[in-house]
């Protein structure tokens, strides 16, 4: 059972930056997809960004140009670099790993954008 451990959340002012990390507890198969999701208070969980083992990326419209998803295969870790943060980005952020027809979730990390 792969476990995902997230870090990097916190309180940041509007316009600021944060980098989230998600580390897997074991080596990942060569074919996989990482994803970052978020859930704001009172809202449904939404997909923010994904990256495949082939390097293909996807971003939801609201974060394009501000967020960057990446991964380090040697460290079994995915990242979400978040720049120009807005109050609407406030949410619990979850990482997801899809591999070998299974999906694994992190426990979530809170990002609060407020002055």
Blueprint (SSEs and pairs):
Layout: E1 4-7, E2 10-12, E3 18-24, E4 32-39, E5 46-52, E6 57-59, E7 67-72, E8 77-82, E9 91-99, E10 102-105, E11 109-113
Parallel strand pairs: 2-11
Antiparallel strand pairs: 1-3, 3-8, 4-5, 4-9, 5-6, 7-8, 9-10, 9-11
Element order: H for helix, E for strand: EEEEEEEEEEE
**Major β-sheet profile:** 7 strands, mixed
Helix content: under 10%
**Through-space gap between termini:** 40 Å
Roughly how many Å is the radius of gyration? 13 Å
Principal-axes shape call: globular
Number of helices: 0
SSE-based structural type: mainly beta
Strand content: over 45%
Nearest-integer average pLDDT: 95
Q: Stretches where pLDDT falls below 50 for ≥5 residues? A: none
Number of strands: 11
Please explain how this structure is put together:
By secondary structure, the chain is mainly β. It has no helices and 11 strands. The chain has strands spanning 4-7, 10-12, 18-24, 32-39, 46-52, 57-59, 67-72, 77-82, 91-99, 102-105, 109-113. Strands 2, 4, 5, 6, 9, 10 and 11 form a 7-stranded mixed β-sheet that branches. The protein has a 4-stranded antiparallel β-sheet with strand order 1-3-8-7, with no helix packed on it. A hairpin with a 6-residue loop joins strand 4 and strand 5 (46-52). The protein starts with a strand and ends with a strand. The model has no long low-confidence stretch (mean pLDDT 95).
